Amino acid sequence: MSDVARIEIEEFREEVRNWFTENKPQDPGFLLPETFMEVGTDEQFEFLRDWQRKVYEAGYIGISWPKDYGGGGRPQIFQDIATREMVTQRVPFMPNTIGLNWAGPLILKVGTEENKRKYIKNILSAEDIWCQGFSEPEAGSDLGNTRCSARRDGDDYIINGSKIWTSLGTYAKYMILLARTSKEKSSKYAGLSFFLAPMGVDGIDPEPIQKLTGEYGFCQTFFDDARIPADCLMGEEGDGWKTAMITLTFERGASGGQAGGTSMMELNAYDVLELARRVRRNGKLAIEDTYVREKLVSFLIEFRGNQLMSAREKVPGLTGDWPGAVSLSGKLRNTELRRRLTQFSLSLMGANAARFVSENSVDGGKWQRSYLNSFSATIGGGTSEIQHNIVGERVLGLPKD
Fold first, then answer.
1. Is 269 helix (H, G, I), strand (E, B) or coil?
2. Which CB contacts under 8 angstroms, 24+ apart, belong to 391-397?
3. Domain boundaries, given as residue ranges, for the chain
4. Residues paired with residue 133 on neighbouring β-strands, in sequence order
5. Residue 56 burial (10 A CB sphere; 0-12, 13-18, 19+)
6. Whole-angstrom Cα distance, residue 135 to residue 139?
7. pTM for this structure?
8. Would you give the DSSP letter of residue 314?
9. Residue of 38, 85, 251, 266 marked catalytic
10. Of 11, 17, 8, 14, nearest in space to 86 by CA
11. In CATH, which of 1.20.140.10, 1.10.560.10, 1.20.1250.20, 3.60.15.10 is domain 269-395?
12. pLDDT in tens, 238-286
């Protein structure tokens, strides 16, 4: 790296740090969701969308996306710096997570020129919110079981069926939709097609689903003879499985190209360390317990290790034995750590852990809320069981049986 480039990067780092310090939003006076999967009220949604728009207009998301489509057109390192600062300062997350991290990168990779000019800028500005239509009730974790149908009728496709766990479904303008256009007998993965489907048409009805925490955010979306334009088809009819698999590499972090920003405001190992210094367990501060201290050290090591994984992946000598291990294991490592970490936070409280909605709950019940919310991330994008199989088969070379 030249001295000029190094100076430019350091100046940008200082610029970003100052901007987020000066522009970090104040407490809005209402409960903010932890992730895009918990956005359930209009005030939450509008607050977060305004924040994403402000960050985009300042030039700190989409930095590495092409300038012709509304991005910054700069090297990836600048986006990495901006995103890292958002994490450090713990600013609100970007609500258009599916657009920024899955749909947008997919469109840039395999979409037409018309797709890129139509969708990309409004994804970045949060003008157009995106949701995902992959999972279905009763279909399990195998997308090959998709039954939602799309039948060609002139210049339209007619969609019938339903999708579930469509986060932000009530706010989304578009959905990345996997539907069955034919019943191929050769394989259950054949005959599937991929659409960039508009949500605001007759016959599409997203109904919110209440979660364990009492919050909303998920929906079940029903399609009843919904007509969408035929040019919403992405790629060739019947070739949707391939496109869906490309999308999942973005969702699981196995492929780069995301627009940047954060998708959650999660509690981390250092937060749990501070909690242990405040709550009492067996009549004394939890931090004084030898077992607690050992567990905390283990969590801190694991958390820091995950933080350093992206840097490790760039060093061939550290990944030569198991190529692809870092990227393919990322979702599994991070979501399972969060689940175990939040579960451990409740154990620090003893009997007080049972107080979730009580006025006497620790920190207003945020630890219980975070634990209950943690399960959604271990399911979405492929369950932890599926992620274990991916690591076993594609990284370790183990047989399917």
1. helix
2. 391/325, 391/328, 391/329, 391/332, 394/324, 394/328, 395/322, 395/324, 395/325, 395/328, 395/329, 396/322
3. 3-128, 131-251, 269-395
4. 177
5. buried
6. 7
7. 0.85
8. T
9. 251
10. 17
11. 1.20.140.10
12. 999 999 999 988 887 778 889 999 988 878 899 999 999 999 888 889 9
CATH class label, 3-128: mainly alpha
What is the 8-class DSSP label of residue 25? Answer: P
Task: Count the alpha carbons within 13 Å of 271 in the hemisphere toward its beta carbon.
Answer: 16
- In this structure, what is the dihedral angle of CA atoms 128, 196, 263, 261, given to the nearest 10 degrees? -70
Distance CA 106, CA 342 (A): 32
pLDDT, average across residues 55-63? 97
Residue 111 corresponds to which tokens in the numbers above? 């979409």
Residues 330 and 252: beta-carbon distance below 8 Å: yes
Active site residue 8: no
Which one, of 393, 384, 398, 344, lies nearest residue 367 by Cα? 344
Could you tell me how many residues make up the chain? 401
Mean pLDDT of the chain: 90
Burial 391-401 (b: 16+ CB within 10 A, else e): beeebeeeeee
Amino acid at 384: S
Q: Is the dihedral of CA 319, 325, 330, 334 positive or negative?
A: negative
Beta strands in 199-264 (DSSP E): 204-209, 218-229, 233-234
User: pLDDT tens-digit profile of 141-193?
Assistant: 788 889 999 999 999 999 999 999 999 999 999 999 999 999 876 788 889 99
Q: How far apart are CA 321 and CA 107, in angstroms?
A: 33
Q: Tell which CATH classification among 2.60.40.1670, 3.20.20.70, 1.20.1050.10, 2.40.110.10 matches the domain 131-251.
A: 2.40.110.10
Q: What is the DSSP string of 125-183?
A: HTSS-EEEE---TT-TT-GGG---EEEEETTEEEEEEEEE--TTTTT-SEEEEEEES--
- 152 pairs with which residues across the strands? 157
Q: Residue 24: which of 88, 112, 105, 107 has the closest Cα?
A: 88
Joined together, the tokens standing for residue 107 give 């469109």
Residues 6 or more apart whose Cβ sits within 8 Å of residue 142: none
